[in-house]
Amino acid sequence: MVWSVSLFVYGGCMVGLGILSPEPSHPLAVFASFESLLAATVLFSFPSAFAISSVAWLFDYEGKKGLKNAHGLLHILSALPVLAGIIITLESSLSTGTNLILTGVIALAAGGLVVTFPENYGSQSSWKEINKTVVNQFISKKVLQLIVAYSIFMGFPFAVSGSALIHFMSMISDFTPETFTPYYIIFIAVSLCVGILILLMKRINYRKLIVYPMIIVILFYFLLPILPTLLWFFILDGGYLFGSFLIQIGIILLVNESITENRATALAVITLLMAIPTLLTFFWNMVLDTIEWEMACVIAGALAIISLVYLNRAVKTHEEQ
Fold first, then answer.
1. What angle do CA 226, 237, 305 make, to 5 degrees?
2. I need a labelling partner for 99 at 20 to 30 A (CA). Which of 13, 182, 266, 294 fits?
3. For 118, which DSSP code?
4. CB-side neighbour CA atoms (13 Å) of 97
């Protein structure tokens, strides 16, 4: 139910933003205001907080192997729809508001499908008892603490990777949607490779899913300053995406395997703790504006190495249990 509610709220927010689109050509643009747009945007925090319930549902019903296979299929099946969405957004004559509304309608339809899934009633304890068990699990599970520490140290590196495309786009005087064609091809290839690799993995090896891909991510940051063109960035970013996708899947599986009680609530709390660095995005961007690009990449690489230490300790702790 929580999974479907998160989709309904997300879809409603997208439709709301589409209707309140400030484009002058939009027939309902007269209703747009800063306050109404802000309210619709703030509501996005609710679906993002509850979306993790889908992971809890899958793990409870399908187990670790089922969750792994689901993520493999997701990467295979989502590549083409993502590409279609990008092409429609960049090249269609539809307004931004219309695209937002269409996205919201799709999310609402998905919510209607999810609401028919068998319910997982979970624990019947009071909310105080549930929160107590969640806190106790986090305090007693070193793996969970180490993963949260990893995410905190990756705050600045994530900001650097997020601004890398803008940095390389500034090197060219003019660009068209065709400029990004190599990126689309690389994205689809990486997504398909990750999906196939996950599905073919008979035994979950967290070192192969988390530790080794993190080395690829570290190399990404140290190689960024020496890339000569946007095309080379697209190629290197493909390696970064490959490593990041595997790490994300590995962390989801490792966290789920470490949680033993009240999975949905515990996952939501862990996810919110891991999202702390994103709250500092404005601060990280201010830091990026004050230092040279090359120095920012070196700092990001150094912090990524520290994050690798925490991930390696988390995997080692899990293996020793």
1. 75
2. 182
3. P
4. 15
For residues 43 and 14, what is the distance between their CA atoms, to the nearest angstrom? 10
Alpha-carbon distance of 153 to 129, in angstroms, equals 31
Residues in the chain: 321
Q: What is the pLDDT of residues 269-319, one digit of tens each?
A: 787 788 777 777 778 888 888 999 999 999 999 999 999 999 999 999 999
Question: Buried b / exposed e across 198-232, counting CB within 10 Å, b at 16+?
Answer: bbebeebebeebbbebbebbbbbbebbeebeebee
CA distance 64 to 204: 9
The overall pTM is greater than 0.70: yes
Q: For 100-111, give the DSSP string.
A: HHHHHHHHHHHH
Q: Return the DSSP state at 87.
A: H
Half-sphere exposure of 248 (CA within 13 A, CB side): 16
The model's pLDDT over 167-226, given as tens digits with 9 standing for 90+, comes to 888 777 777 767 777 888 898 899 999 999 999 988 889 999 999 999 999 999 999 999
Count of alpha carbons within 13 Å of 53, Cβ hemisphere only? 22
Contacts 24+ apart (CB under 8 A), 223-229: 224/160, 224/164, 224/297, 225/293, 225/294, 225/297, 225/298, 227/168, 229/168, 229/171
Q: 19 is written with which tokens? A: 């209707």
Whether residue 8 contacts residue 111, with contact meaning beta carbons closer than 8 Å, is answered with yes
